Amino acid sequence: MKALAPGFRSWRWLRAAATYDFFPSFSTRVRAWVYNPLGILMCAGVASLLCGFFLHAQGFILAGGVAAVAVLGVLWPVAALRGLSGSLGFDRPRAEEGDEVGVILTLRNRLPVAAWGLAVRGGFGGDPARAVAGITAAPARRVAVCRWLVVLTHRGVYPLAPPRLTSGFPFGLWDHARCLTVGERLVVWPRTYPVGPVPPVGGDRQVEGIVSRNKVGTNGDVVGVRPYRRGDSLRRIHWGQSAKHDRLVVCELQSNSRPLIQLVLDADPRAHSGSGADGSREWAVRVVASLAKGWLAAGARVGLAWGGFDLPPASGMAQTCAVLDALAGLPDVVDQPLTDVLACPVCRGFRDGLQVVVTTDRTQAGDGCGACAGESQRWVVLSADGFGAPASGGQPAGPSGAEAWLRIGSPAEAPALLRGGWREARHGS
After folding, report:
1. For the segment 121-170, what is each residue's pLDDT rounded down to a tens digit?
2. N or C: which end of the chain has fewer CB within 10 A?
């Protein structure tokens, strides 16, 4: 490779020095003022003044016109919004990712003139400067009700930030903003998918319920027969078998019970890859939400835990709402690795049911809870590489000797695996 000529090297060095930003923060402020209509108008006003001083007095007339336009463009939005008050609400208290939700804005204009060119910005994610909805006008001395539909593709408690009512009318030189009050907030649940039946759950804390289990009880279908014991109901006597064996034989029935389940979510961002709705963290949240919703609908008692949060096991629709509400409000930063979560008293002391841990193959769990591994603990492992860019570091998921009960390789596999990814789901419990 030939060496560059000295003159060419000097030219490249001068070009790099001329285009290097030595004061990036100052440059950002300058661009914010200059690269907008008001900044350009101010530059035009300064140029007109210079023309008035050095060329001709008519430059002062042009500078006065430019100043009048700038003052009118700045003060008009301020005056218009001072007479406005508004509140934002939703047509329902809860929704799910991907649902179309109605947003209701109530505006009250106390001024004798209408307010024009209004817009609602912020509060729904994305670019806060992007307009969520545009409003043509707010009539003078009247209350206006505006309604529009929005599709929310990410879980959370909306609005995510205080929404602002803005106006740049009449020239769009400067957008003045005023915060809107928010009534009842909207809770957007994670998207859920149908799941398979509850896997076998051991322990003695199962209470009577509506889920038929293949264990001896007093309800459900017949699972076998045994000799009569004092206290057995005469209605359970199998007369045919009793006559055949010349002794009383009774039927053993299934146990209708409520399995006890604790779902543990690895919410540490360091264990996940990808970002946004398709990242492994959001899909881990959807997996937990799907398991909780499906198994609660089947009558199980389900609890939830992650770093710094614990929801005791319970059953019913109220528990479903509590679990999904908690997952909707999961903070972006949970600075507690899975090792510490499994070692906490809530998780370590859970012994009388099934503990399902949802994590990725990048987790730092190690051997932090080796005593828990076994039939009472199942691991749902998401392959981080399938949900975004590969992350660095990490150790194999789960304690030593514990294999993944359910392994999900990508978002496309998740719905099918949740529905039939384990033995009981494929062949029935």
Report:
1. 999 988 877 888 999 899 999 999 999 999 999 999 999 999 999 999 99
2. N
pLDDT tier for residue 48 given thresholds of 50, 70 and 90: very high
Alpha helices by DSSP H, listed for 166-279, are: 239-245
Side chain identity, residue 50:
L
CATH number assigned to the domain comprising residue 170: 2.60.40.10
Between the alpha carbon of residue 3 and those of residues 6, 7, 9, 14, 60, the distances in Å are: 9, 12, 10, 18, 57
Same-domain pairing of 272 and 399: yes
Rounded to whole angstroms, how far apart are CA atoms 328 and 324? 6
The separation between CA 7 and the C-alpha centre of its own chain, rounded to angstroms, equals 57
Looking at the structure, tell me whether residues 296 and 422 fall in a common domain. Answer: yes
* The token pair that represents 136 in the structure block: 């043509």
Domain's final residue, options 233, 258, 283 = 258
**367 — pLDDT class (breaks 50, 70, 90):** very low
Q: Do 302 and 420 belong together in one domain?
A: yes
Residue 64: give the domain boundaries. 22-79
**Alpha-carbon separation of residue 63 from 37, 70, 268, 406 (angstroms):** 16, 11, 58, 72
| Statement to judge: residues 250 and 273 lie in one domain | no
Identify the band that residue 208 occupies on the pLDDT scale cut at 50, 70 and 90. Answer: very low
186-189, strands of its sheet edge to edge: 94-96, 186-189, 156-158
Residues ≥6 apart with Cβ < 8 Å to 9: none
For residue 170, cis peptide bond before it (omega within 30 degrees of 0):
yes
The CB density around residue 405, as the number of other CB atoms within 10 Å, is 17
Residues 279 and 422 reside in one and the same domain? yes
Give yes or no for residue 213 having a pLDDT over 60.
Answer: no
pLDDT greater than 80 at residue 428:
no
Domain boundary, last residue among 131, 162, 189: 189
**Together in a domain, 30 and 115:** no
pTM: 0.78
* CB crowding 196-231: b at 16 or more within 10 Å, else e: bbbbebbeeebeebebbbeeebeebeebebeebeee
Residue at 198 is within a domain: no
pLDDT band at 212 (very low <50, low <70, confident <90, very high): very low
6 belongs to a structural domain: no
**Omega prior to 190 cis, within 30 of 0:** no
Per the structure, how many domains does the chain have?
4
Give the closest residue to 289 by CA, choosing from 96, 93, 92, 94: 96
* Cβ atoms < 10 Å from Cβ of 29: 10
